[in-house]
Amino acid sequence: MTTASVIDVDYEQPAGSQAGSACDTRHAWARVPPEPSPDERIALKERIRRLLREHDGGRGAVMVSHFYVHPDLQDLAEETGGIVSDSLEMARFGRDHAAQTLVVSGVRFMGETSKILSPEKRVLMPDLDANCSLDLGCPVEQFSAFCDQHPDRTVVVYANTSAAVKARADWLVTSSCALDVVNALHAAGQKILWGPDRHLGDYIQRQTGADMVSWNGACIVHDEFKALELELLMKEHPKAKVLVHPESPSDVIALAHAVGSTSAILNAAQRMDASEFIVATDSGMLHKLRTLNPGKTFIEAPTAGNGGTCKSCAHCPWMAMNGLVELANALETGAGEIHVDPALGLRARVPIDRMLAFTAGLKNGHAPGSLIAGIGAA
Predict the structure, then answer these.
(1) 196, 192, 194, 121: which is closest to 162 by C-alpha?
(2) DSSP 3-state assignment of 44?
(3) Does the pLDDT of residue 18 top 70, yes or no?
(4) Which of 19, 82, 122, 290 could form a disulfide with 101, with the two C-beta atoms 3.0–4.6 Å apart?
(5) pLDDT by residue (tens digit) across 78-101?
(6) How far apart are CA 362 and CA 63, in angstroms?
């Protein structure tokens, strides 16, 4: 098998912001593993199944994978008793599972979140260098200084952040619960400091009318979707419904038939009366969409247009760092173990637990406002 190639990743963010700040990082890299041959793939998958069974003296390990990683890692997770889901459900599943070793296929903040919720467990990742532009673009020192400039605001951060940024927050949200949480905070009269994704923050502000100031970050995948090219593609497929993740630019969101998290996109594709869909999120999502909807067609939304350049080509270069070889190596050697300072983990768990209590309360029929009272800002 050939060796992994290292690619440069340009994730330039705008200089300055109407309301918030952005760090001055402009560049990163990703190490993309080569595709194994068919025979190598079969052997690696069987080796990983055995390692998961035999791990920890025969007590086993459980594998959780994000929707955006390679289909092989998604399939392996489900075939071996794990799950494929969003970052929060990955962590929640790992917390509640009997296995004392969690293998997280995704990016680093996902492994950290799993460790925060399961500090007593061992958390392994195929590659600890698998990062996220939102996390990289929100260093805790600069973000804390931004928060200090607005001491009267409740700090709400997106899951795509480091443990240190989570520890600085009052609330954590995912794209599936952000609207509900911010709506409830707004109804309680709280002003919001949001970070780090500016597109998601802008979408939430428009939907809720909340008083918000935002950090100026972006996901390199969703930031690249182009409304001009999307409109042209929609003309080619006039019966297609458009499914958009809210990390996308506002002019792309405006063209959507459904806007939502990865889980919401899955639900919309199954629920909507259409046989053809254009999908504006990471292309790794198409595997699960096609698996669950074998009679439907899914088309990648375009990531280029007039004056546009494709930095991500609709797939996160860091998600692509998760490979079968790296996964097997982590299980065999313990490489890629996530460590979070225990004191930091305790602080970071506070906003996570608030979100978990809030979402559980909603499922149990409680009014959103009753879930804010007595919690508020940290």
Answers:
(1) 196
(2) helix
(3) no
(4) 122
(5) 999 999 998 888 988 999 999 999
(6) 28
pLDDT tens string 99-147: 999 999 999 999 999 999 999 999 999 999 999 999 999 999 999 999 9
DSSP calls for 170-231: SEEE-TTTHHHHHHHHHHTT--EEEESBHHHHHHHHHHH---EEE--B--TTGGG--HHHHH
Both tokens assigned to 118: 């399961």
Beta strand 27-32 with 83-85: parallel, antiparallel or unpaired?
unpaired
Task: Using the structure block, give the residue that is written with the tokens 């928060």.
Answer: 147
Structure token pair of residue 196? 């780090």
- Give percent helix, percent strand, percent coil of the chain, each to the nearest 5: 45, 15, 40
pLDDT at 372: 82
Residue 313 tokens read as 């080509």
How far apart, in Å, do the first and last CA atoms of the chain sit? 51
Q: Which one-letter amino acid corresponds to residue 148?
A: D
pLDDT value, residue 4: 58
Per cent of the chain over pLDDT 70 is: 89
Confidence at 369, pLDDT banded by 50, 70, 90: confident
